[in-house]
Amino acid sequence: MTATDEALETTREAARAASAKLAENVVAFDVSEQLNITDVFLVCSAGNERQVSAIVDAIEEQLLKIGRKPARREGDRENRWVLLDYIDVVVHVQHDEERVLYNLERLWKDCPEIDLELPEAS
Fold first, then answer.
1. Could you tell me which InterPro entries the record lists for this protein (predicted)?
2. Nearest partner of 90 among 24, 34, 47, judged by Cα
3. DSSP letter string, 42-107
4. What is the sign, positive or negative, of the torsion defined by CA atoms of 25, 56, 119, 115?
5. What global pTM score does this model have?
6. What is the DSSP letter of 17?
7. Segments making up each domain of the chain, as ranges
8. pLDDT, tens digit (0-9, with 9 covering 90-100), for 16-37
9. What is the CATH number assigned to the segment(s) 5-107?
């Protein structure tokens, strides 16, 4: 089983919103084969708590435009690691230090990476 088309569309919209707010290292993994609870993990990071918050807000605003509202939002008090749960897509916006410490890419390295279709940085 692979991620649904709706999950992929949601992931790419979220990635574009994060990228527009200068999120760093935006990556997504199709975790549908390993997990029954979601299809995709989207991970990105920022250098400070204010930027983490801005990225989270931008993702939520963009996904509301396509009719998606998170079922759950966690970690927004500290803005060190905010999780947005859209059921089929889970977005992790991390402070750079948490990104290095928890290294989610290492945990999900065996999962296929999703092409986010983001423009190349110039």
1. Iojap/RsfS/C7orf30, NT_sf
2. 34
3. EEEEESSHHHHHHHHHHHHHHHHHTT---SEEE-TTTTSEEEEE-SSEEEEEEEHHHHHHH-HHHH
4. positive
5. 0.94
6. H
7. 5-107
8. 999 999 999 999 999 999 999 9
9. 3.30.460.10
